[in-house]
Structure formats: structure tokens, C-alpha cells
Amino acid sequence: MLYLDFLRHGETNLSHTLRGRTDDALTAKGWAQMRSTITQSEQTGQAWDVIYSSPLQRCRLFSEQWAEQKQLPLYIEPNLQEMDFGEWEAQSTERLYQLYPDELAQFWQTPLSFTPPQAESLLTFKSRVLESVETLTQQMYAQGWTRALIISHGGVIKLLKCQALKQHDNDLLKMSAELGQLNCFVFDQGQLQFIQSEDV
């Protein structure tokens, strides 16, 4: 049995937009949110064997700092990146609603059947995220690690919640994954189970 603790990055310069693959930086508040969550978790006796991270700086820079501080192995996993929103990248939902109200409604309600222009489809996103989970769990088994801290994005965490809770893929955007929040999963016999969310 493996424990996968997914930490969503904190607030960024482009929070409240669909930043996707846009490589924006954490704000001071964003750094503080992540530190607070991790520190609180450690105070309950939490300890990790390894850290995995999205390559985007809002995840990677914190991961590098924490791995160095705790002397833990760190692996940058490209498939843990956020969904690519194509032409909607770095646009606020308010602006998108003004420009494309029907399309935005389709995306929120049935993301399986609507993909923003030039964006990554939900099926492609799902495939690479699940491939990433398979890769890292295999490595954990091989190394004898039982608990990983995985620093990633809202879309990734929401997708994995859908999988673990046996929800339809179209429910992806209805899942919660707050900034700086830790979402804990168990991986057992090839099955992902959701345990809990721990807030800042």
C-alpha cells in the first residue's frame, strides 16, 4: 500500500485565471500557504520518503527547497503538469464568460465533449496524468518507499479525485482542490482511493 499526498501549489501571480501550462510564479502568500500546510502535516507525525513535482515553477521551486531542507530525493515529472488550456491560457473566467459564454458553459459542464481552441483534450490530459501515477508508483515499489509528497495542480488533483471516487470524467471541474491544500490518496493493488483533504 502506497500513500500519495498531493499538494496543490499556492497562490500565484495569475491566480483566478486558467493558467494551465503558463509558468507563472508563486506570490509570497502562495509560498506561505504551502509551507503552512506542510508544517501542519509534519506536526501530526507525517514523514515522506520522496518528493515528485510538476516542472512548472509554481510547484518546482517549492519542491526543490523542501527536498533540500529535508534531504529527500526529488523527481520532476513532466506529466504532472496542469492541463494545457490553449487559446484560453492565462485568461480570467470572467473575461472568457464575456467573450465565449456558451463555450465556457460547455467546458464547465461537459469537458469530455468540449475542448477549448488549441487546448489539450480531457482524454489526453487524463491519459498522461494516469501514466504519471503509474510511473511514480512503480518507482516507489521498486525503491521500497511508502509515502510520497507530490506537488502539482488543481486539474491533476481533481482528475485523480474523480478516478478515486468513481465519478464521471465530466464531474472533473466539480471536484475541490484548493490552493495550498493537501489531498491524500492511497494506492493499493492498482486502485486509487481518496482519504481526505487537509486545508491550510
UniProtKB/TrEMBL annotation:
One GO cellular component, as annotated:
cytosol
- Fetch the Pfam families from UniProt: His_Phos_1 (PF00300)
Keywords noted in UniProt = Hydrolase
Question: Per the UniProt record, which EC number(s) apply here?
Answer: 3.1.3.-
Catalytic positions are H9 (tele-phosphohistidine intermediate), E82 (proton donor/acceptor)
Q: Which GO terms describe its molecular function?
A: fructose-2,6-bisphosphate 2-phosphatase activity
Q: Which domain of life is it from?
A: Bacteria
Q: Which is a GO BP term held by this UniProt record?
A: negative regulation of glycolytic process
Residues binding substrate, per UniProt:
R8, H9, G10, E11, T12, N13, R58
Per UniProt, the enzyme's principal EC class comes to hydrolase
Which PANTHER family would you find in this protein's record? FRUCTOSE-2,6-BISPHOSPHATASE TIGAR
The protein here is known as Histidine phosphatase family protein
User: What organism, scientifically named, is this protein from?
Assistant: Acinetobacter johnsonii
